[in-house]
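Our consortium's second objective concerns turning raw sequence data into structural hypotheses that experimental partners can test. To show how far this objective has progressed, the report includes one record in full. It was chosen at random from the queue rather than selected for favorable results. The single chain below, 82 residues long, was entered without modification.
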Amino acid sequence: MAVSTVSDADGFWSSMKKAYGRLPREAKWSVAVASTDGTRAVNVIVHDSIEGVRAFFEQHASPYATTEYFEADAANAVGLPG
């Protein structure tokens, strides 16, 4: 999970749309959602490495947001992709 505090919503989502088209083959982008005021975003990317997600995501998000990365607790989650 990538949880972002967004400073430039237009720049952030424009960059996320470009990033989606450049997603590595071994990764799957399951969810991208923003708060109604645009200051927070949650992205769920399925990949075998949190560091791989961080490296990919930071290339696109870092000019527009500060992001924290977490591995999802799949055993206690509801609705995560299989």
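The partners drew two points from this record. The CA atoms of residues 28 and 82 lie 11 Å apart. The mean pLDDT is 93. Both points have been shared with the crystallography group to help prioritize constructs.
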